[in-house]
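**User:** I keep going back and forth on a fold encoding question. It is easy to fool oneself when nobody else works the same problem. Could you pick a protein and write out its sequence and tokenised fold? Could you put it straight underneath, so I can go through it closely?

**Assistant:**
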Amino acid sequence: MALSIKNLLTLARQKLSDSSSARFDAEILMAHVLESKRSFLYANPEFELPANRSEAFKKLVKQRAAGHPVAYLVESSEFWSLPLKVNPSVLIPRPDTERLVEAALSKIPESADWRIADLGTGSGAIALAIASERPKCEIHATDISPAAIEVARENARQLGFSQVQVHCGSWTEPLKGKFHLVVSNPPYIDANDPHLDMGDLRFEPRSALCPGTDGLAAIREISQLAQAILVDGGWLMFEHGWEQGPATRQIMQKAAYTRLETLQDLQGHERVTIGEKGLDV
């Protein structure tokens, strides 16, 4: 028996009742299956799905009930109002990371033609967000994961941001020349952090979340590496854990960065630390 959008959404909400976003999740999955906008669901609640699409929807709901992130199920996520492809080879872009983009834009003049590096780019979210606001800048994004590189390159192509170049390699290793700004949202969660076994984090690439037993290892390494590629007076910016602000400032101060500042997110948590490179050390 063919089921309508309304009936299938009701069944889905029942199966997803443990989720605080059951209705939203169900509607996103339905819109994906129908290749439509959510407004179509509201306007056509009695529309009956063909059997193949109905089964596809039920399969996605079952996966969501098992905890799989919606973004991976629909292979899409929005960041800085940009539609991005995502899959389990990259982190799902989060609203908190927009604070890092805001910090970068606050330092880049609107007409600047700076060279900017995004280290550990994943889906390319940060690099592409900056490119959307500062089109004259030349942006180089790196990631050690070939699968992530493929996603970032496809996102750059889909959005038409030819000024974003994506390179495969560890941190600064693939880069040449000097940069005015280096940004990074590196792995910063300790290996023994219980949050790694909760929620969406269970399904995201562990290497992009956790640098090992020392959650600050990547921040420490990048702070040293960035010295070699930043122009004098250039900026280094990190997203980090909400309790890592003091430690990140200490690391950057030891690596000879000055004018250190830690910015808060919308919840009042320390989330982004920035510093300026002085004279070559």
In short: Residues 51-65 form the longest helix (15 residues).
